[in-house]
Amino acid sequence: MVQYAEDKFGGFVKIRKEVAKKSFYGGNIVCAPGQGVDGYGRKITSDWLVRFNGEKKTYRVYITQISNAGSAWIIRDRQKYHLRDMDYVPEEK
Q1: I need a labelling partner for 3 at 20 to 30 A (CA). Which of 29, 52, 83, 92 fits?
Q2: If you write DSSP's letter for every residue of 26-92 in order, what string do you get?
Q3: Is 60 part of any domain?
């Protein structure tokens, strides 16, 4: 069963923090950790963190990308929680 972070912990803001990426084929392809040269992966490290309202701790957002279907998720308390509508969450300044 899919558990959604917003349902369990409330609202959050997203924070951009780039991760180091690797280059392949002379720099023509750049991949994030966990991402294959085909662009897919089960635990791709994204450039985003989330902070839930009223908390100081941040959580790294991971992406599972299989074909044209992808999902964003975090790990909190050793559990996987999916995120809804990542594009519409306000970015922290």
Answers
A1: 92
A2: TTTEEE-TT--TTS-EEEEEEEEEEEETT----EEEEEEEETTEEEEEEEETTEEEEES-GGGSPBP
A3: yes
